[in-house]
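Question (not urgent): is this output format expected?
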Amino acid sequence: MFDPHFEDNYITGNNGFALCDKEVERYISVVPSENQLSYSKKPFNVFIHFGMNTATGREWGSAQETLDDFTIKDIDAHQWISVIKKSGATGVVLTCKHHDGFCLWDTKQTDFSVMNTPLGRDIVRLVSDECRLNGLDFGVYLSPWDMHEKSYATDGYNDFFCAQLTELLTNYGDIFEVWLDGAKGADATAFNYDWERYYELIRRLQPKANIAVCGPDIRWVGNEAGKSRKNEFSVVPLSLTEAKKTEENSQHDLSGKSVKKFSEQTADLGSRQVLQSADKLCWYPAEVDVSIRKGWFWNEKDNGSVKSSGKLFRIYIGSVGNNCGLLLNVPPAADGKIPKKEAKALIGLGKKIRRIKEKPVLVQSFGQLKDGVGYLEFKFNSVKKLRYCFIREDISKSQRIEKFDLYITTPKGRHRRVCKGSVIGSGKIIPMRRRAIGAVLVIRQSRSVPCIEEIGFYE
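Got this back:
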């Protein structure tokens, strides 16, 4: 045992940092947009990679594909969305066109589309319709890099890309997320995408859509292995929204073994030390994108790499439970269905997610804490077998809490620390297996007075 020093909190010392000054006011003046706020409340979505690469067994294409190479005869979009809904996800982002240039919808801009194959069905229409029937949000991924289009790397290509983007944003209902990356092959012709033009088009046609990764609303976490930083801040330097910085690194790593090691600078994106040297700041939450299997597209040789529901749940806790969004890639197979192994893992994941809040012990909302309140004490009506604690800040007032300790009160009345934490933001999930008659949340360090939307304890 040790003395928890509850009185050593943000009010009495704030860990040696200023609680309220002009610089702190600058930090907390940065808040999410309405679109970003909506995203924070529905942070788990599924990526679907499906297309020419599913048929050919490639990841990025070869630039030599023809319509004859797309040999898939049928798809079961109903099965896709039914399984995905059971995973606990609230939205789907579909790869409408990957780098090979093959289009999954009835585009008028090129003949290189699914409509000119024996399948002959608008897959974007099928998936978006199933999403709406099942209450899921629908989003689109359109690769800026196009190996097939002859106008690529000319001034006319930006017109071509915007025409395709317009089709997707006007013919398939509300779009909740537009996912853009800057991936290019090493031998791709040098070409500058007109990002600002793309953004303006999206804002005008789908004003409620977040623009992710190579976009100003949601940032790439920095790897594709399902990992987030220990301190994943949402208030960061505005310079991070520069698309070129993401463009150089995105869509490369899958295994996690060669994840780019963060430099001292990139490992810390939002501490006071970083923010004080940045002229302009922005709200730019992280999204963790990771595949359920080794590749982004289904390939039979990778069938042994499918992640279990337990592994997926750990990724969920480390992303959604660590102030991030999660975009889990689930690629259907060449038979047009999500394979049984993936389906089983997804259904198991959904059960584990629902289990978090299935048995509430105590849930309270607070808002801005009252003057003189540096820690919050909770008492249960009997001994409880705690499994999770969920904490969420009111991020409409920015991200404020920088350090905290969570203690449980044992049946003998002692306090034991179960979490020494830092960032909370849109959500912190703390797993535990403890018998307790109460708990204490001590906020050690904060940017101004904390605003806590919710704290919940669950058996």
